[in-house]
Amino acid sequence: MKNRQVDSVQERPLLYYKTKEDIEAYKKKSVKLKLQWLQAQMEFFDRAMSNEARRIRDKLKRGEL
How far apart are CA 60 and CA 58, in angstroms? Predict the structure, then answer.
């Protein structure tokens, strides 16, 4: 049963939806706060990235791929 639940989640696309109100509220936030949020996301993704993904990213940066 557990595997069946995982399969059904993997078959569904990941949707990200924001209302107009959410967007308006975000627009009102300061640039400093938005940049802090972006920095936190970048740090999270860097820590979560696998070694293989990091290797590919670095090759892309160097123009090797």
Answer: 5
pLDDT in tens, 9-61: 567 777 888 999 999 999 999 999 999 999 999 999 999 999 999 999 999 99
Question: CA-to-CA distance for 42 and 48, rounded, in angstroms?
Answer: 10
φ and ψ at residue 64, rounded to 5 degrees: -90, -10
Q: Write down the pTM of the prediction.
A: 0.55
Residue 59's domain spans which residues? 29-65
Q: 32 is written with which tokens?
A: 């400093």
What is the distance, to the nearest Å, from the Cα of residue 1 to the centroid of all Cα atoms in its chain? 29
Inside any domain, residue 39: yes
Report how many domains make up the chain: 1
